[in-house]
Amino acid sequence: MEFFTNLVSKDPAIYWPLSKTLFKILKGDDPKGFFKIQACSLLAVIINTNVQDSLEEPEWDSLTTESLEAIEYAVRNMDRFQKSKLLEEVVIVLSRLFQMSEKAVLSRDIVKILLSHKQKFSPNVRRRCNIVMNKQQAHIYSAQSQQKKRKSDTDIKTEQISPDKKTKIEEQ
What we know:
By secondary structure, the protein is mostly helical. Helices cover 80% and strands 0% of the residues. It has helices at residues 2-10, 12-15, 18-27, 33-46, 49-54, 57-76, 83-100, 108-117, 123-160, 163-171. Helix 4 (33-46) packs parallel to helix 7 and helix 6 packs antiparallel against helix 7 (83-100).
């Protein structure tokens, strides 16, 4: 596995189409967690700024969305024997995704799973998990503030309409 990791790390932009196969492995029902752990490891190598720069925005957003879906599926359906190592690899992938994508947001149940296992992680992985949770909160907060801003902008626009025009609009 080390050979493939080194090969992919040399130029990950070439190997980003491999991510589709990695997603299939993560979403698969294979009882052996080893393959899911290896898929997460390779996905962590593929996700970096070179790949983000080489892809166009819709492709990168699609890669981010599919990564999060595959990771969430793998975490929800993991066996109790593979939890610790798989979760460590998941945290590494998530830390890379959250560094480069503003649209990455985890579901609440995945956050609960990560927080419940955080104490079992090594210090390095625990630090990454804290970074992911902080970014998660920042992404949620920015999304909420954007919604409030849009709502207040529409309120301001309706207030700028004269009262006569408001009644005409309401009558229609």
